Amino acid sequence: MRKSLQIGAAFVGLIVGAGFASGQEIMQYFTSFGLWGTVGGILATIAFTFLGYMLAQLGSDLQTSSHKEVIYHIGGRYIGFILDVLITFFLFGVAVVMFAGSGSTFHQMFGIPPLIGSLIMVAVTILTLLLNIKNIINLIAVITPYLMAIIFIILIYSIFTMDLSLADANTIAKEQGSAASNWVLGALLYVSYNIAAGAALLIVMGGTIKDRKVAGMGGIYGGIMLGALIILINIAMFVKIDVIKGVDMPTLELAAQIHPMVGVLMGIALLGMMYNTAVGMFYAFTVRFVQPEKKHFKPAIVVIGLLGFGASLVGFTTLVGKVYSTMGYLGLALIIAIILSWARKAKRQKTANAPEPL
User: Fold this and answer.
1) Which of 30, 101, 157, 202 lies in the 20 to 30 Å Cα band around 91?
2) What is the CA radius of gyration of the chain?
3) What stretch of H or E contains 287?
4) What is the CATH number of the domain that holds 101?
């Protein structure tokens, strides 16, 4: 159970990047649909749990150190190739966005120039990636309970200081910008967007576990924790929608209202989430090309990390921002491929276990 919880917590740490933890993504994909946003959160929990279970087990079954084998296993020769190329591109792109975002956060919190803030994150990411994968999983997993504790404090505060009726909160929430036309599509696109980004490392983490049941439970725990965070953040923002409407970082605003120190703790949590995402994405990107046990792995980490730092300075984040919406549709294609693969495997197992005719 301990290994399963570690994988689950690491899965959460990977997915919960700056946009998730800040509340901005939750606002656009869930809270902006009012009361239905919570139902969307429940739908997202179910989807994350099922997909986490499947991906972790697939990684365990194939005992892979890269997402490549599983993606080709799921999608076949041609679709697998397309998914592999797109996922690999987005792994690098999302990590670069985390570098740029950390520079802005360091500047906002501590007055450190964005260039220096980004460089700090790059250096810490490179040093972390020089460790082995099991140590990386442990490091990423550590920050998850801390974030959940901060979010729970914000939720309790928000509920007990709510000044709006549910009807008024529902009206204001629906006035906020949405990333989808309805709550069902919003929930599914949010899951698919994050699965497109997080599938690679979840597969790699599953590959570190030989027992497929343990790996599968890790995916389930991760899905449940992700869903719980979505629902908690959504409720906290919904009941205080009059306070955080139009704010770029809603959870940071709520935390600062409780006490300036809580705001600092939330800011540290945001940096921790950026660190988690950067480490996870860069590791999965690098092992796509160089196996961890190869002597070229550590030099590759340094070179790729420096390239990522350079990309964060020359406007690469603008390019990535324009194609982020594509990740949602990539994720939908990946989800369909996962379900079809699971259905085929279940059918084969059923046939193999069927009693022979007399």
Assistant:
1) 30
2) 20
3) helix 260-287
4) 1.10.4160.10
Tokens describing residue 73: 């296993």
Q: How far apart are the first and last CA of the chain?
A: 42
Q: What is the pLDDT of residues 257-285, one digit of tens each?
A: 888 888 888 888 888 888 888 888 888 88
Number of structural domains the chain divides into: 1
Of the CA atoms within 13 Å of residue 136, those in its CB half-sphere come to: 28
Q: For residue 349, which amino acid is it?
A: Q
Q: Quick check: is 182 in a domain?
A: yes
Range of the domain at 40: 2-345
Token representation of residue 131: 């460790």
Collapsing DSSP states into helix, strand and coil, what is residue 176?
A: coil
Listed in sequence order, the residues at least 6 apart from 161 whose beta carbon sits closer than 8 Å to its beta carbon are 240
Dist. CA 33–CA 38, nearest whole Å? 9
Q: Phi/psi class of residue 117: alpha, beta or left (left: φ > 0; alpha: ψ in -120 to 50)?
A: alpha
Is 167 inside any structural domain? yes
How much is the pTM?
Answer: 0.78
Phi, psi (degrees; rounded to nearest 5) at 24: -65, -45
Query: 358 in helix, strand or coil?
Result: coil
Determine the Cα–Cα distance for residues 33 and 43; give it in Å rounded to an integer. Answer: 14
Task: For the chain, give the number of residues.
Answer: 358
Question: What would the two tokens of residue 23 be?
Answer: 């509340």
Q: Do 18 and 270 touch, CB atoms closer than 8 A?
A: yes
Q: For tokens 């590959």, name the residue.
A: 207
Measured CA angle at 169 (ends 263, 150), to 5 deg: 25
Distance CA 144, CA 150 (A): 10
The answer to whether residue 350 is domain-embedded is: no
- Least Cα distance to 199 among 63, 30, 8, 67 occurs for 67
Distance (Å, rounded) from C-alpha 87 to C-alpha 69? 13
Per-residue pLDDT tens over the stretch 11-63: 787 777 656 767 778 888 899 999 999 999 999 999 999 988 888 888 887 77
How far, in Å, CA of 140 to CA of 286, rounded?
17
- What type of residue sits at position 212? R
| Residue 80 counted as domain residue | yes
CA 36/CA 43 separation, integer angstroms: 11
Q: Which of 205, 245, 196, 236 is nearest to 90 (CA)?
A: 196
